[in-house]
C-alpha cells in the first residue's frame, strides 16, 4: 500500500464540482506517465495509457473525487453559520464534530458542527456551525460567505497494527487511489486496449461525472471503483463487504445490472490470479455505473467495490490490503481486454 498517496487523497477536501485538490494529487502522480490528459465539462479528469492494437477497445476506470460535505446556506445575525449537506453526510456524524469551511480565498476555517433536534429521540435537522462568533460581521471577517463549502476535519492515519486506515472521504478516495496506483503499476507494460484512468466529478449528487467522462471519451467499457458500507457488527455469511477480505465484485444494484459475460470475465480473472474478492449485491443505492452504462447505445460496465465502515461519516475505517487487491484486479482487467475479447463480451448471439 502507498500510505503517502491514500493519506494525501483522504486529507484533500472536495465536494461535488469543487474537486480541485483531488485533481491536483492525480496530476502530481500521473502527468509524467500519461499519454494524454483530458477533462469533461464537469471537471472529471482522465489520464490516457495508449493501447497496442490498431483499433483498440477504449476502457475507462474511474473513481469519483467528491465526498460528502456541507455548503453554507445562510448566516444568522448572531453569528451561526447554517449549512446544508452535500452528498449525504452520515446523520450520526453531524453533531459535535469539527469541520472546516473553505473560503473563496482558499483559507480553511475550522468550527464545530451541530444539528437541531426536536428532542433527544428525533433525527437531526437544521445543521449549523459555531465558529465562536457573536455577529454576522464577525463571520464575514473570517471570510465565510453563503455558498462556501466544507468537509469534516480529519487527518488520515495508519494504525500501528496491521494495515488499518482511519480517515475521512474514503468514499471515494479509495477508488481514486486504486485507479491512480493501477495506472502507475501498468506504466511500461504493453496492453492491447486504450486505457483511461479517471477521477470523476459529482457522483454523490447524482452519479454524474462518469457518464460525462464516458461520453467525452466514447468509452466501450466503464469500470467504476467505489466503496460499499460494511456492517460493523455482522461478520457472517450475510456480510459480503467484510474489511480485510478483498474488494467486492458487484452483481446488482438498483441502478445497474452488469452484463453477465463481463461479470463472469472479471470473476474468472480474480480466481485465475488468486485475487481475494467478495460477491456483493446492493439492496439499494447505486454508483457511477448506473448512469455511465446508459451513455450512447450502452456500455459494458461492472463495479469494483472497496469495503469501508462508516462511509459518509466524520471518520471511516478501511484496510490497506483491500486497496492492494483492488489494484491487482483493475490491472488484471486492464491487461485482459483486446478487440476479440470485447466483441465476444458484447455479443448476445
Automatic annotation (TrEMBL):
Any one GO biological process: proteolysis
Cited SUPFAM superfamilies: Aminopeptidase/glucanase lid domain, Zn-dependent exopeptidases
Entry keywords, A to Z: Aminopeptidase, Hydrolase, Metal-binding, Protease
Cofactor binding description: Binds 2 divalent metal cations per subunit.
The UniProt record lists the keyword Hydrolase: yes
Binding site for Zn(2+) 1: 64, 171, 226
Superkingdom, taxonomy of origin: Bacteria
The UniProt record lists the keyword Zinc-finger: no
Residue sites binding Zn(2+) 2 per the record: 171, 204, 312
Any one GO molecular-function label of the UniProt entry: metal ion binding
Classification via Gene3D superfamilies: Peptidase M42, domain 2, Zn peptidases
InterPro entries the UniProt entry points to: Peptidase_M42, Peptidase_M42_aminopept, Peptidase_M42_dom2
Pfam family, one: Peptidase_M42
Cofactor(s) required, per the database record: a divalent metal cation
Active-site positions on this chain: 203
UniProt record similarity statement: Belongs to the peptidase M42 family.
Name under which the protein is recorded: Aminopeptidase
Organism the protein comes from: Collinsella tanakaei YIT 12063
Lineage: Bacteria, Bacillati, Actinomycetota, Coriobacteriia, Coriobacteriales
